[in-house]
Amino acid sequence: MMKKTLGYALLAAGSWMLLSPQSLTGIKYLKWMYDYAFPGEVLLGMVVLGAAYYCLGFPPKKQERPSH
Predict the structure, then answer these.
(1) Quick check: 41 and 21 in contact, CB under 8 A?
(2) Cα Rg of the chain (Å, integer)
(3) How big is the CA angle at 47 (ends 45 and 48), to the nearest 5 degrees?
(4) What percent of the chain has pLDDT over 90?
(5) Between vectors from CA 43 to CA 55 and to CA 57, what angle results, nearest 5°?
(6) What is the pLDDT, as a whole number, of residue 10?
(7) Predicted confidence band at 59 (pLDDT cuts at 50, 70, 90)?
(8) Which of 23, 28, 47, 67 is deepest in the core (most CB within 10 A)?
(9) How many CA atoms lie within 13 A of 57 on its CB side?
(10) What is the mean pLDDT of the chain?
């Protein structure tokens, strides 16, 4: 239960980190998010989202071998 809660919290934080730097060029109602952006936030956001997927149990899909 705690792992899922941590996973959802990391998912929210990672999503924020990916959206925040881009909000200046997008919808005017999201421009306030840019005030909280910092350099390297997108790279850190990708790492945080990876940790969130791990906590939530979203493993990468396995490649299946061709049948021929």
Answers:
(1) yes
(2) 16
(3) 65
(4) 22
(5) 15
(6) 92
(7) low
(8) 23
(9) 5
(10) 82
Q: For 38, left (φ over 0), alpha (ψ -120 to 50), or beta?
A: beta
Residue position matching structure tokens 């396995």: 62
Question: Rounded CA gap, 58 and 47, in Å?
Answer: 14
Q: Find the mean pLDDT for residues 2-29.
A: 83
Q: What is the token pair recorded at 18?
A: 């990916």
Instruction: Compute the CA torsion angle 61, 49, 15, 17 (nearest 10 deg).
Output: -140
**Pairwise CA distance, residues 20 & 3, whole Å:** 25
Residue 57 confidence (pLDDT):
85
* Token couple for 42: 């997108």
Residue whose structure tokens are 């939530």 = 56
